[in-house]
From TrEMBL:
Its EC number is 2.1.1.225. This is tRNA:m(4)X modification enzyme TRM13. SUPFAM superfamilies: S-adenosyl-L-methionine-dependent methyltransferases. Belongs to the methyltransferase TRM13 family. It comes from the Eukaryota. It comes from Actinidia chinensis var. chinensis. Pfam families: TRM13. It catalyses: adenosine(4) in tRNA(His) + S-adenosyl-L-methionine = 2'-O-methyladenosine(4) in tRNA(His) + S-adenosyl-L-homocysteine + H(+); cytidine(4) in tRNA(Gly)(GCC) + S-adenosyl-L-methionine = 2'-O-methylcytidine(4) in tRNA(Gly)(GCC) + S-adenosyl-L-homocysteine + H(+); cytidine(4) in tRNA(Pro) + S-adenosyl-L-methionine = 2'-O-methylcytidine(4) in tRNA(Pro) + S-adenosyl-L-homocysteine + H(+). One of its GO terms (molecular function) is zinc ion binding. Keywords: Metal-binding, Methyltransferase, S-adenosyl-L-methionine, Transferase, tRNA processing, Zinc, Zinc-finger.
Length: 366
């Protein structure tokens, strides 16, 4: 599918900071002809079947997180089971991947994991992923990166740990230069993030691994980084922007242009909006062969895109959304692998816990 098969956005400039808004993405899709939509969906299916065949389920609840799973933590700390399970599985995958070490007992102030001297949580919010990491594995130095101010933060509990040094960096990830953080200089670190919305994932990867390069040039991997491991749970793919996307060259080589990319990001909202009480497990793997109702005869009937979407089954919309999420994150994984580390893209929780269930995980980055 080439550029001529997809109509470009009619107003490419009006989002905040030059971004393409969801409304603009929607309008571009709805301005397509039925034939163009059919070609676009076929393109998505073809790309997905060629690059997304090995995204494994990896729901890991480690023994080390028992204190949280069994609700044995400070009663003042918020406990929402779905978030605790997600946080625990992120850490479980890090342990399974060999980035974190489980001492086999509850962490005391003298029993910290020396293999990870520092942890940076990007998009930290209130910092409860780091709170669980500190409670269950032990860490010496923590940097919480968050541009917003939050109440009910984990900071107070974290600061009560005598051997833990905590520093909040109130800054946008896009503006963060880790080389300018004096207290981090020369210290190996682990980068984590839970539900980094849209382009925040790309900005985090660029912050940790990307060499600074002139605007418009391809982002390149920084081999001088002190990064030892990485675990990023991606989120809100509908907010992704071509301008910020970390691996435009990879998608371009697959025939995915800027306008196709923004259409793909718009489709991802269907995965999140779907009824996840229904059984979609394993469905995405077969979605590449899915025959979407109405596409074959829509040209003959003179129907438009709106008619096609109305006739599509909910499961078809959801599976199309999941395929698009896979494609976006697979491009990110390929960019990480440019540095030659061991890296994977996994589904770290069942979609019934959260449809935002992709985790990028890597080690051996230096």
């Amino acid at each position: 599918m080439g550029v001529k098969d997809f109509k470009p956005l009619k107003n490419p400039s009006s989002g905040p900071l030059g971004s393409i808004t969801s409304e603009m993405k929607r309008n571009a899709v709805y301005n397509m002809t039925a034939t163009e939509l059919s070609k676009l969906i076929s393109k998505i299916q073809a790309v997905h079947s060629s690059i997304c065949t090995d995204i494994q389920d990896s729901y890991k609840i480690p023994q080390a997180c028992g204190v949280w799973i069994n609700r044995e933590v400070d009663g003042k700390l918020p406990f929402q089971e779905k978030h605790v399970l997600q946080q625990a599985s992120i850490l479980g995958n890090l342990e399974e991947f060999g980035v974190l070490k489980n001492s086999g007992e509850h962490i005391s102030r003298d029993n910290y994991d020396s293999s990870v001297p520092a942890v940076i949580e990007f998009g930290a919010g209130r910092g409860y992923l780091t709170q669980m990491l500190a409670d269950c594995y032990g860490i010496k130095k923590v940097f919480l990166v968050e541009r917003k101010s939050y109440k009910l933060k984990a900071d107070r509990s974290l600061r009560q740990k005598e051997s833990l040094i905590l520093e909040r960096l109130r800054i946008d990830i896009e503006d963060l230069n880790l080389n300018a953080v004096e207290s981090l200089q020369g210290i190996p670190y682990l980068a984590i993030g839970k539900h980094l919305c849209g382009p925040a994932t790309d900005m985090t990867l660029r912050c940790c691994l990307g060499k600074k390069c002139p605007q418009g040039q391809v982002a390149r991997v920084n081999t001088d980084s002190n990064l030892r491991g990485l675990a990023i749970a991606t989120c809100c793919h509908h907010l992704c922007q071509w301008t910020h996307y970390i691996n435009k060259s990879y998608l371009s080589n697959l025939g995915i242009t800027k306008d196709i990319f923004h259409a793909i990001t718009w489709f991802t909202s269907w995965a999140v909006d779907a009824d996840h009480s229904s059984d979609l497990s394993g469905g995405v793997h077969g979605a590449s062969d899915l025959q979407f109702i109405g596409l074959e005869d829509c040209g003959k009937d003179g129907c438009g895109v709106e008619d096609i979407f109305r006739d599509m089954r909910a499961v078809e919309r959801a599976l199309l959304g999941f395929m698009c999420k896979d494609i976006i994150d697979m491009g990110r994984l390929m960019w990480i692998k440019k540095n030659g580390p061991e890296a994977e893209l996994v589904k770290y929780v069942p979609y019934k816990i959260s449809p935002e269930n992709h985790l990028l995980i890597a080690k051996g980055l230096c």
